[in-house]
Amino acid sequence: MDIIYYHPSFNAEMWINSLQQRLPTARIRQWQAGDDAPADYALVRQPPVDMLRGRRLKGVFALGAGVDDILGQLRQHPEMLAEGVPLFRLEDTGMGRQMQEYAVYHVLGWFRRFTEYQQQKTQALWQHLPNYDRADFTIGILGAGVLGRSVAEGLKFWGFPVRCWSRSAKDLPGITSFHGAEQLGEFLAGSQVLINLLPNTPQTEGILNRALLSQLRPQAFLLNLARGPHLVEEDLLAAIDAGEIKAAALDVFVQEPLDTRHPFWAHPAIAITPHNAAVTLPHEAMDYIAKSIVQREAGEMPSGLVDRSRGY
């Protein structure tokens, strides 16, 4: 069994050695330009077209939770990966807990008004702010996949009402579920905090726009943990100026790194992190990949299979 590996920034030697320990009979190599030797599986992030083109692989594993980069390449170069080759994404591999931590930190900060107290500190202002009602501080999560469900469970633990919206119906115990375009408005109208964990597809690009943000409860909060292109950035600024959005925390941006002249940097209502809300944890990811390859070799289909027509 031959496995080829490519990632533009990960330590290839560490990944290959660690995977070799998990799959001792496999032959694993770092792909280099011009390498057209046989391979059964490919582990990739932003792969060159030539790496995959023409190969009849048993599976391709995207080294990240999102697959928008490789699907974007396929739209431009459909010949890069044959239609019948299964494409898998990392469903969780430790990212769910990281997303929980990030979301809980910001939601609690907004709920307890800690961010506002920090702003008062810069003015030497000693002033108590009225508390929010927990039962009325409803968290709305766009996306009910593995990461969306993980974040929902993490926030439910703190006693907040949690609701999720997804493209198709989901059964989530203890969480109010909405689905489809016809229920999106009702979902938004009851949400005080909106957390975006949608997949990045042509259909979801620009979904966080002024029309959507204006449907949230007054003085709502926005947390974007998914992808930068989901948000129309100038619409967020306009919504904050209009008092529709009270504050936002953004981990992803249309352009990364964020331009030093971007107005988000200086805006007091916007918190920024450099796309690190959840990062790939190598050993958890390798455990999943090794287990999945063993399943494929046994004729089984692992979890994490991407539906290319849906984009996730």
Strand order of the largest sheet: 8-7-6-9-10-11-12
Indicate the mean pLDDT.
96
Q: Helix/strand/pairing class, anyone?
A: alpha/beta
Helix percent band: 25-40%
Oligomer: single chain
Total count of helical runs of at least 4 residues: 10
- Measured on Cα atoms, how large is the radius of gyration? 21 Å
Quote the CATH topology of the largest domain: Rossmann fold
Number of strands: 12
What overall form do the CA principal axes indicate? Answer: elongated
Element order, helices and strands? EHEEHEHEHHEHEEHEHEHEEH
State the major sheet: 7 strands, parallel
* Percentage of residues in strands: 15-25%
Looking at this structure, what is the CATH superfamily of the largest domain? NAD(P)-binding Rossmann-like Domain
InterPro entries: D-isomer_DH_NAD-bd, NAD(P)-bd_dom_sf
GO molecular function, one term: hydroxypyruvate reductase [NAD(P)H] activity
EC number: 1.1.1.79, 1.1.1.81
Protein name: Bifunctional glyoxylate/hydroxypyruvate reductase A
Characterization of this structure:
The chain has 312 residues and is α/β, with parallel strands linked by helices. The mean pLDDT is 96. The chain folds into two domains: 2-93 and 280-298, Rossmann fold (3-Layer(aba) Sandwich); 95-272, NAD(P)-binding Rossmann-like Domain (Rossmann fold). The strands form two sheets. It has a seven-stranded parallel beta sheet with strand order 8-7-6-9-10-11-12, sandwiched between helices. Helix 1 crosses helix 10. The chain is built from ten helices and twelve strands.
